[in-house]
User: Fold this.
Amino acid sequence: MPPFTGTLASGGDWCVPAYAQDMLWIEGGGQPVQATGPRGQFALDAAPDEIVLAWGRPGGTPLAVWRAGEPVTWDGEVALAGFVERIHVLETNEIELVIAEIEGSLLPRGYLFLPTLEDMRENPFAREANADRPAALKATYPVVALADSIHADYLHHAMVSELSVDCGAALGPHEGGWHTLIGLPLLVERLSLLAPDTKGRLG
Assistant:
């Protein structure tokens, strides 16, 4: 069986931040290997049925999951669903920040936060019951937002109201120094709050 090689950041301008270049692990077929360099190059002995991108170490926090046949590429973005369990407030370089701990799971790749024009041309918009089923094991994800942002407001509201959230976040750039504040710096880009009767979706 031929080896399976790939490059996570195989297109576009995004590169793996310097602080993350020894933190990304590719797991598949029982063989964990590091994704190395600014492009995240890796090599497995063979193509597995499932590949997990883990943070920090083998078995670490899942950041992405690919099934057999899917292109193994990544742009530093993470989509997850869960509950806000804890909020930290801090100030650095005269910037007030909120870091929220979301306990939950990755959403499936390509999860639709909001429909596009093309989606609406194909079918009337409706959420499928299993569209946001967990794609990986549960973990705790720290997400960062400016303290005076709407994201911070709604993270706090989700915690006190015990509402589940869908969160889109991206690995912070090296230049921002985010990795000096938290070991997995995910910067919030979008946030959805779900009604209380959706709790069961996370198991």
The mean pLDDT is 90.
